[in-house]
Each structure stands twice: as structure tokens, then as C-alpha cells.
Design a protein that fits this description.
553 residues, alpha+beta, six-stranded mixed β-sheet
């Protein structure tokens, strides 16, 4: 992080809004060195109105972005850095999370439905009945995605079916849909007073309404989901000027970069060549491998996604992706739901004290299982418990679960690509946990490489913004990119031990499946008459009592 600088000597700077599931941040980089100069972060709430539902307040998200921008600018001034040197802003965001708002008032019409949300399983089941053979991969050749609760199209469909305000706004032509990038860009560039309604190809490719070959909204898909095309944002490249900041300390600065968070991390890790890959440890886990200019379809449960398109006239690059719903969220769950420890750092400490899970395995299928299974009926389990097991072992098992899930998607990636990865490049908040990184190297049996500057997601958004036509302060020429210093974790256990533990994990995964159906819950209020023998017994008893009273009378 920057220390003291003389005003005006920094040259051009680039900012990045990093809007994630757990927090919003604004970071400022020096494009000449890729050095992070300052940042501000605001944590966000998630609400769980019903089992399987996950929501956020879209207005709170937006307010957190404004706050982060202003606070970072104040910090830069304290460092004697002129904020007038900020020449562009990039945006990276949690993908798939769905917002529908009223373009005449600027108000969201419902809470943001988060990518983890499971309420749409019945919607998915209903849609599957329309598909020949009920094949959830029927549209995969066109979208790269299976039909699951994960993607935006089914969330939009649920809102249209269940929220009257949304349906009415659509009928009256007032509704706008967007993933978080669209909501933020529209608001920052003027909102109801001329805001720009757009998204980029990486975010569009996560909606299930986007054709990854033509790079356009697909009319047939929109018809299948019965979603009007006119509520969708205009799709643009990941690196071009979309509009200007309309208020605040950075009024007039162009917003010129936009990438979904995992694509931004791929760019920030400088994985520009075919075969280069990275794994991000955030709320979930996301392994992406660059497959070049042609989309490659997985045969082993991975997704095909648009990696980036760095300019209007530049070709799109694609990636294979292994998506895991619960990564860092498992630590938050231990902290907030089980109250094992008051902070994430202390969970790391008690896991270190255990040194092993002692046969305890934790499958965090809180939102079903994503890649490579795509199994919505799975639910979280902790198994292998004995009287010896304590909270330290459960904390260690939680960290192991993160590593085992990464192993599963890496195995699928290696099968699809045909050439096993020799090292794993990593990033994200959890990579600050050295125990986790060493455990990951041990369970993968390959080295794990972590950049010394961990903010690669925000860095990728800044790179896209700074390289945009009309900005031109960040060169993406490989010869001009700054070399990154890294920390390396080598495997320290033998492969036989790793395979033994992995086999037990796979056994636990199988046990987690088949727990849930899409049948509605009764909220726990089960009638005694649901049991026929008990119902007959009670009814007969009542009749006998009435008869006895009648006879005695």
C-alpha cells in the first residue's frame, strides 16, 4: 500500500469498484506498477427470509458503493495524492444476482435475489417439463450452462410469477433488469435522469438468456423463459467507455471497464493464454481456465463462460469454469450460525490447534451441490463424529471441505483439458489463510501459488478500464505487464495419504445427496391426521366418548 507521495507526481490512476456478495470496495491502482494505493470496504448484510432464500438490499448495495468511493478519495487526499489523476473506473461484481427496478423512480421493485438462492427450484422443475427428455443440459450448447437455480433467467421468471409490482412494471414498460453491474452503472451514470442501462459479455453470459456464440441476447431463449427482451440491458464489451460518473468526488470520470468477478480475477492473474487457470476463494470457489477464442463444452460438469472481451473490436475469449457455491461462506456460517468463534481469524487459529479433523468430514451443500454434480437435492452434512470430536475438529473439517471441493473441480478441469495443471494460481480473501493454502497444496499434490498483492479481482477490472479506447493509461501488451511476486506452497504429505482422505470425502458427498425435494414445506406444522393409524385412533376415541356420554344421558 502506498505511503507518502508528492501531489501531482503519481501520473494517471485507475479506480475499481469491487461489489461482492459479502462486501463492496473501491480500490485505486497505479497502472504503471499495478500497485494498490488505497481502498475502502463496507460489509453487506444478507437476509434469509425463508429456508433456501438469500436476498440483499439493492439500495444498500448502491449506498455502500457510494460510501466506498468517497472514503477512498478522502484517504488518497490524506496521502497527498490528487484524485484528479483518477482517469477511469472499472466495475467487477457478484454475478447472476438479479435486480429489477423501476426506471421512472429509480427504486428496486424487489430485493436483489442472490446467486446462491434456491427458491426457484420449483420454477426449474416446471421449465424442465417443457424440454425434451427433461434434459437440464438442453441449452448448454447455446449458453454453456445447465438449467439450474444458479442463473438469472429463472430468478427473473420467479419475480414475474410471484411479485405483482414486477409484473405490472413490465406490462407498463417501466421495468429494467440487471445483474449488479447493470444496476450500479445505471445508477452511477445518472439513474432515472439518463443513466446507461448496459452490461458486459461476461455478466450477460451468466443469465441463460445469452448466446455465447453470437454474443447477443437469444430470442428463442427469451421466448422459452417468457422474458421480454426490452427489459434486458444492452450488451457491450468488457473494456469501453459506458458513461460518466454523474455525482460525488469523481464526477465526470468515465466508467470504462466491466467484468464479472471471476472473469476479472482471470484478467488480474494475467491468464491471457490458452490453458492458463486460476482459482478464487471468495464466498464460493471458482476455478477458471482460459480456452482461447473458441468455447469448449465440458463433458465433466463444468460450465462454459465468456472470459472477457477487451474492446469493442476485440474477439471474445472463453473459459471453462468450475463453480462451487460455498467456500468462504462456510467460515462465516461457523462464526455467525454456530458461534464457534467470534472472528474468521480465530476459526483459523482453532483449526490450526486441531491439526486434523480426526475423521470428521463436512460437506457444505447449503445450496445443493454445484460443479461438477449440479445436484439440487443435496444438503450440508457433518459426518464421522465421535465423542472425541470438538469445535476445533469441525473448524479443520470446514477448511478441508474448501480444499476437497477445489480438488473435485480441478479433477474435472484436468479431464476436460487433457493436460493436468502443474501448479494452481489462487486469489481471493481466503488465500490469506496460510493453513488453508498449505492444506490445499497437500490435498491437490501440486504447488499452490499466491500473488503477494491479493486484490486480483479489482486489479482485473482496473486493467480493463485503464486499457479502454479513449482512456489508454494501461497497456495489456504482455511485454508491458508488471511481473507479480508470489508466495508458493509445496505439498508436504504423500499422495497416498491425500488420496485416502479424498476417498472419504467422496463418501461423505454421496451421503449428502437426495435430502431435499422441491415439494413445499408445511413450516413444521404437521397435522396429527397425516398419520392414518393415529387419526383413526383419535377419531374412534372421540366417537366412543360421545357414545358413552349419550348412553349415560
Amino acid at each position: 500500500m502506498a505511503a507518502d507521495f508528492q501531489r501531482g507526481t503519481m501520473g494517471p490512476l485507475v479506480g475499481a469498484i469491487d461489489q461482492g456478495t459479502s462486501s463492496s470496495r473501491f480500490l485505486v491502482f497505479n497502472p504503471n506498477t499495478a500497485e494498490l494505493l488505497s481502498l475502502h470496504q463496507v460489509e453487506l448484510k444478507q437476509t434469509f427470509p425463508k429456508e433456501g432464500w438469500v436476498e440483499q438490499d439493492a439500495k444498500e448495495i448502491l449506498q455502500s458503493v457510494y460510501e466506498c468511493v468517497e472514503k477512498t478519495c478522502e484517504k488518497l487526499k490524506q496521502l497527498n495524492i490528487d484524485i484528479g489523476n483518477i482517469k477511469a473506473i472499472g466495475i467487477t461484481n457478484q454475478r447472476e444476482t438479479t435486480v429489477i427496478w423501476d426506471k421512472t423512480t429509480g427504486e428496486p421493485l424487489y430485493s436483489a435475489i442472490v446467486w446462491l438462492d434456491l427458491r426457484t427450484q420449483s420454477t426449474v422443475d416446471r421449465l424442465l417439463k417443457k424440454i425434451p427428455g427433461h434434459d437440464k443440459c438442453f441449452f448448454k450448447s447455446r449458453t454453456g450452462l445447465p438449467l439450474t437455480t444458479y442463473f438469472s433467467a429463472v430468478k427473473i421468471r420467479w419475480l414475474l410469477d410471484n411479485v405483482e409490482e414486477v409484473g405490472q412494471a413490465v406490462r407498463e414498460g417501466r421495468a429494467m433488469f440487471g445483474t449488479i453491474d447493470s444496476w450500479v452503472i445505471w445508477s452511477l451514470t445518472g439513474g432515472k435522469d439518463g443513466g446507461i442501462h448496459c452490461t458486459d459479455v461476461t455478466n450477460a453470459s451468466r443469465t441463460m438468456l445469452f448466446n455465447i456464440h453470437t454474443l447477443e441476447w437469444d430470442a428463442e431463449l427469451c421466448k422459452f423463459f417468457d422474458i421480454p427482451v426490452d427489459i434486458l440491458p444492452r450488451v457491450r464489451s468488457s473494456s469501453e467507455i459506458y458513461g460518466l460518473m454523474s455525482s460525488g468526488a469523481l464526477t465526470g470520470v468515465p466508467i470504462s471497464g466491466c467484468l464479472g468477478d471471476q472473469s476479472a480475477a482471470l484478467v488480474g492473474q494475467m491468464c491471457f493464454k490458452n490453458g492458463q487457470a486460476k482459482n478464487t476463494y471468495g464466498t464460493g470457489l471458482f476455478l477458471l481456465c482460459n480456452t482461447g477464442h473458441k468455447p469448449a463444452l465440458s463433458q465433466h460438469g463444468l460450465l462454459t463462460t465468456v472470459a472477457y472481451k477487451l474492446g469493442r473490436d476485440q474477439p471474445a475469449c472463453y473459459a471453462l469454469e468450475g463453480s462451487v457455491a460455498i467456500g468462504g461462506a462456510i467460515v462465516r456460517w461457523l462464526r455467525d450460525n454456530l458461534c464457534i468463534a467470534p472472528s474468521s481469524k480465530e476459526i483459523e487459529m482453532i483449526a490450526a490447534e486441531a491439526g486434523s479433523s480426526y475423521g470428521c468430514y463436512f460437506v457444505p451443500a447449503f445450496s445443493g451441490l454445484y460443479a461438477p454434480y449440479w445436484e439440487p437435492t443435496a444438503r450440508g452434512i457433518i459426518c464421522g463424529l465421535t465423542q472425541f470430536t470438538n469445535k476445533k475438529h469441525i473448524a479443520y473439517a470446514a477448511l478441508e471441505a474448501v480444499c476437497f471441493q477445489t480438488r473435485e473441480i480441478l479433477d474435472a478441469m484436468n479431464k476436460d483439458c487433457g493436460v493436468p495443471l502443474q501448479t494452481l494460481q489462487v486469489d481471493g480473501g481466503m488465500t490469506n489463510n496460510k493453513i488453508l493454502m498449505q492444506l490445499q497444496a497437500d490435498l491437490l499434490c501440486i504447488p499452490v501459488v499466491k500473488p503477494s498483492m491479493p486484490e486480483t479481482t479489482a486489479l482485473g477490472a482496473a486493467m480493463a478500464a485503464g486499457a479502454a479506447e479513449g482512456v489508454g493509461v494501461w497497456s495489456l501488451n504482455p511485454d508491458d505487464l508488471t511481473a507479480v511476486t508470489c508466495e508458493r506452497f509445496e505439498p508436504q504429505i504423500n499422495s497416498e495419504e491425500s488420496e485416502r482422505r479424498y476417498a472419504w470425502w467422496k463418501k461423505a458427498v454421496r451421503r449428502s445427496m437426495g435430502w431435499e425435494t422441491s415439494e413445499p414445506h408445511t413450516g413444521g406444522e404437521t397435522s396429527i391426521f397425516c398419520s392414518l393409524p393415529l387419526g383413526f385412533f383419535i377419531m374412534n376415541s372421540l366417537l366412543m366418548l360421545i357414545g358413552a356420554k349419550y348412553i349415560s344421558g
